[in-house]
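Appendix B. Raw example, untouched.
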Amino acid sequence: MKTRNGFWVAWAAITAGAAVMPAGADVPKLVGYQGKLVGSSGVTDGSVNLTVTIYDAQVGGSVLFQEDHANVPVVRGLFGIVLGSQTTLPDGVLAGTSVYVGISVNGTAELSPRTQLLAAPYAVKSKSAEQLVKPGTMTPAVTVDGSTGYVGVGTSAPATNLDVAGQIKIGGGSPGAGKVLTSDANGLAQWGSAPASSPWLATTGGIYYDGGNVGSAPVCPPSPCR
């Protein structure tokens, strides 16, 4: 990184947050950022104030996140900070395909060019956490649409709360040939016996009841029509 304000970053590295979390805890929203800061007269020592901004583009673009780090120690030009330690990283910051980090030193103009945030090699596989892929592959088995929350099984573009492409198997209750799904007052479904055959008969013009009281139809059975 270079800039006209007398500082430049010789190198920068992004590392995963190293916080130790208990089992079952959420992933820490912390990202390590390290670099080497060099002034016009050589490497910098002491402390600096840094403003870190994450953008959705290398040039211009929109600000996705910003935080200040005061009195950051610099030893032989080396510094290290943890993004998200001053301001919580919103979930959507790392949702884009490309994001870039801009650094400002002691309130001066932002260093240029910005540093792109890249995934660690094995972290690429974590994309499957949004999709539940088939074991040993990157082929989605279950997909959650990030904008609607719809869940798709066998489809990557679910159109309803649960969109299943193919057959489903429900083992609860007493499944059997000819059984139908029935629901209780709370919407809980289970297998039950199919209802008795309907007394209503169909014709090309409508339906009618074959037990004496008849519905609309252009042709009625011998029983009275109403």
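End of appendix B.
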